[in-house]
Amino acid sequence: MSLRSNSSSSSSNYSKEDDRNKDTSSSPSTFDSRFNQTLKNVQGLLKGRSFPGKVLITQRSDPLDQSALQSPNNDRRFSNDDTEQTDKFDRSVEDEIQNRSNASASSSANKTKASTLSTDNTSKVVQKTAMGARSTDSARLTKFQKELSGTTVILEKLRELAWSGVPPYLRPTVWRLLLGYAPSNSDRREGVLKRKRHEYLDCVAQYYDIPDIERTDEEISMLRQIGVDCPRTVPDVSFFQQAEVQKSLERILYTWAIRHPASGYVQGINDLATPFLVVFLSEYLSGSIDTWSMADLSPEKVSNVEADCYGCLSKLLDGMQDHYTFAQPGIQRLVFKLKELVRRIDGINLS
């Protein structure tokens, strides 16, 4: 009997020890799993932020208190304490994240405010510059209008103003005056322009609107050369490819060549006529030149434009006609002057 009781007592003790060992081995793993779960929660809250410091998960070297393992109440208290600590840690992390978020939001707001202020300041500077440019243009425009509104235009002052450019809608009037095609006296201007335009029509009827049998061989050759050059004039602008435009340009150039037999027509004069054609057409056509059409104008307006182009081209070439005559003495004279100028400048630099 004593042996059986001892053996049963011994087996009972062994079973208790095994249970204690199981509890002891399972409790630390439970603690580790909870701590790992807490870390996962914290990492989820951080959303990619770096965790401060290092966290090492290790087994405790000292054995846990056996009484704490045996008592259910103590087990629950240990679990509650651990949960409270975890909650406190989570709350501290959440507070840290919230503080960082607030600081980031405040920094973003300050940057946005600074950017807005910078944009406002830039826009004010641009507006001020634009206003200054407009005021300058307005002042120049006022000066032009003042000079042109007088009974007699002082050409020296008008030329000085035009040196820095002429407002587009004033160019036809200013160009006529500065080239001497229109008189400076406003009372005579309309009558003189009307007379010169009629003279141009008479010249066209006399020299251009005639059959080829009434022309000389030289005139036929010259008209043929002008007919070849007109389609080549400003080929990249569609407006100059219109048949009406090329016909007007042909009449202007041929009439000028017939009236100036010393030089006749020379290639390149067509390029001198195109600016006049565009400027004087701008009195009747608006918008971009790509949308212009000569077909929209009446024959009277077309003849007025041609007459003004012919008159201004004649005034322009009168001062350089010897550039286009035989041996081109005007060009040779300019080359000689340029040679003398270069020689003097080189002499000054060498000395």
TrEMBL record:
Q: Which SMART domains match?
A: TBC (SM00164)
The taxonomy runs: Eukaryota, Viridiplantae, Streptophyta, Embryophyta, Tracheophyta
Chain residue ranges for the region called Disordered:
1-35, 58-121
Q: Which organism is it from?
A: Olea europaea subsp. europaea
Spans of biased composition, class Polar residues? 24-35
Q: InterPro entries of this UniProt entry?
A: Rab-GAP-TBC_dom, Rab-GAP_TBC_sf
- Domain of life, per UniProt, equals Eukaryota
Coiled coil location: none
- What one GO molecular function would you report for this record? GTPase activator activity
Q: What is this protein called?
A: Rab-GAP TBC domain-containing protein
Instruction: Tell me the SUPFAM superfamilies matching this sequence.
Output: Ypt/Rab-GAP domain of gyp1p
Task: Return the Low complexity bias intervals.
Answer: 1-14, 101-116
Where is composition skewed (Basic and acidic residues) in this entry?
Answer: 74-98
The UniProt entry, under Pfam families, shows: RabGAP-TBC (PF00566)
